[in-house]
Design a protein that fits this description.
The protein is mainly beta and about 500 residues long. The chain folds into three domains: about 5-195, no CATH class; about 210-350, Porin (Beta Barrel), CATH 2.40.160; about 355-505, Cysteine proteinases (Cathepsin B, Chain A, Alpha-Beta Complex). The protein has helices at about 375-385, 390-400, 410-415, 430-440, and strands spanning about 5-10, 15-20, 20-30, 35-40, 45-50, 55-60, 65-70, 80-85, 90-95, 100-105, 110-115, 115-120, 125, 150-155, 160, 165, 170-175, 210-215, 220-225, 230-240, 245-250, 265-275, 280-290, 295-305, 310-325, 330-340, 340-350, 355-360, 420-425, 445-450, 455-465, 470-475, 485-490, 500-505. The strands form five sheets. Strands 1-2-3-4-5-6-7-8-9-10-11 form an eleven-stranded antiparallel β-sheet, with no helix packed on it. α1 (about 375-385) crosses α2 (about 390-400).
């Protein structure tokens, strides 16, 4: 057994990784996103890989260059990939399960080129018998991507989750999460844990910061998408120092709230209307700031153009302040001086609670005749278990070659097969019943009354549940014309609803 050593950057992402004769070096761009990886064996380079955005990868292995262009999404969601090698373009389909794991690589002739399998924590298994012993049939991962679409560092038995190294054998990260999303939830106290120790139940969807600030004669409120990796923000401005004014702004740059916590550079563009002077103006502002602990300092330049009077004016300012905050919210106070004299401000941010997200591997399954919807649902949930022999024709035969399945007949039709079982559930009174069904690898059907008085059936594809109890349920569709809502936040609003969970015996 050899020792494994990792070093980290100042922004807490892996810099180097060494184990035995193998070593990997990682380079990041100005946004602290992965840009290049070099792997060596006994000092000789055996792999160089570049990353541009989330949809393009280039690698050189043994003198052979490959380019991967992910089409229709990014590396975590794209269904199609174009691989360029020696001037030849080859297309592949990537099939994924409900966690985002890449399970199959299929060529344009619909031939399965490779099949992959992972346990709940991301450890690779044989696709043949789910054992942890891989043989010649278990081919190398496609672009080293596998568990939830992340990059496997096979030589080190780790998964690189965008700079944080994850060990699927023990289900833990090698370094701590810099943010504790829910400190009042015991499973989040361990900052090395993955997905609250429940990887089959949760996926990691982030929200955005809501920001606000009071200044000398002004107030603004907006949002910033930095927490989900998008350096954009926007909001509304209101002022009263020289008559009442109102307007909006947009900004580019990594900025967390109004407290100055963190560091970065921002560029913003605003448009305002002054009601006292009946004039329009636009302002461009460039700023930079840095912080150490609760203390921060910044500087900015601005250019304002009064479109009504055709006049330009420039401004500048420096500021210093103190603030406190965490991933849920924060507040701070600043004092500044500039071309407009002394100024002061009180600002803060609030990060809305994130929902737990539960998904089901079902999709739209359209019929062409009235009455097919329930049978199409049965076909869809059967296929989602890899049991495609129980198709529409099978269920039509089980239903006595009749279209339409009355709600009172659903359970009997399913249970009489001896292959599947069903349970009637009532998520209207406890939305967690859907989440529990998905956690236990069950599928959920919803039947309801349409606006025309008929009945319709669809599969539930996803549910989000917030800590407050608020929820949102999403549906697939079985009709070429959309009959079911795409989603709902109140199941009581859908008339005549009934829910059933399905699962194989």
């Amino acid at each position: 057994m050899t020792d494994q050593t990792a070093t980290y950057t100042s922004f807490e992402k892996v810099s180097t990784l060494t184990e035995g004769v193998y070593s990997a070096t990682f380079i990041y761009n100005s946004d602290n996103q992965r840009a290049k990886m070099t792997v060596t064996q006994s000092g000789n380079t055996i792999l160089t890989r570049w990353y541009i955005g989330n949809s393009y990868i280039k690698e050189v292995v043994g003198g052979v260059t490959k380019e991967y262009n992910f089409i229709g999404g990014d590396v975590y969601t794209a269904p199609v990939v174009a691989v360029i090698q020696s001037g030849t373009i080859t297309y592949y389909y990537l099939l994924r399960d409900h966690l985002g794991n890449i399970t199959h690589q299929v060529n344009t002739s619909n031939t399965v080129v490779a099949e992959y399998n992972f346990d709940a924590w991301g450890r690779r298994r044989s696709a043949d018998d789910w054992s942890y012993t891989l043989d010649a049939n278990d081919l190398a991962l496609f672009a080293d991507r596998g568990f939830t679409g992340h990059e496997h560092l096979t030589l080190f038995n780790l998964v690189n989750m965008n700079g944080r190294l994850y060990d699927p054998l023990v289900g833990r990260f090698l370094n701590v999460d810099p943010y504790v999303q829910m400190p009042d939830y015991s499973q989040n106290v361990n900052r090395y844990s993955y997905c609250l120790n429940n990887p089959l139940k949760f996926s990691d969807e982030s929200g955005e910061f809501l920001t606000w600030s009071f200044g000398k004669g002004s107030f603004s409120i907006g949002f910033n998408l930095t927490p989900i990796g998008i350096p954009l923000g926007a909001g509304l401005n209101f002022g009263w120092s020289n008559g009442f004014s109102a307007g909006g702004y947009g900004e580019v740059g990594y900025r967390v709230g109004g407290t100055g916590l963190g560091s970065g550079v921002t560029v913003s563009q605003g448009l305002n209307y002054n009601f006292k002077h009946t004039s329009w103006s636009t302002t461009t502002s460039e700023g930079a700031y840095a912080s150490f602990g609760p203390f921060n300092a910044g500087a900015n330049l601005s250019q304002t153009y009064n479109m009504t009077n055709n006049q330009w004016s420039n401004g500048w300012g420096v500021s210093a302040g103190i603030g406190i905050g965490n991933d849920k919210g924060g507040i701070g106070f600043t004092v500044g001086y500039g071309s407009g004299g002394w100024s002061y401000g009180l600002g803060g941010y609030y990060n809305p609670p994130k929902p737990a997200v539960y998904k089901s591997p079902v999709s739209d399954n359209y019929g062409s005749q009235n009455g097919e919807c329930a049978l199409r649902c049965f076909e869809e949930f059967s296929d989602s278990y890899g049991m495609s022999q129980y198709d529409y024709d099978y269920w039509l035969n089980e239903n006595g070659n009749k279209l339409g399945v009355h709600a009172t007949k659903i359970e009997g039709l399913i249970d009489n097969t001896g292959v599947f079982s069903s349970d009637r559930i009532a998520p209207q009174t406890n939305i967690n019943t859907i989440a529990e069904a998905f956690t236990n690898d069950k599928r959920v059907l919803m039947a309801f009354k349409t606006s025309s008085g008929g009945e319709h059936a669809v599969m539930v594809s996803k549910v989000k549940i917030w800590p407050s109890g608020r929820y949102k349920v999403y549906f697939s569709e079985t009709s070429p014309v959309r009959i079911a809502p795409y989603s709902t936040s109140n199941l009581f609003r859908i008339q005549g609803t009934g829910f059933w969970s399905f699962f194989p015996n």
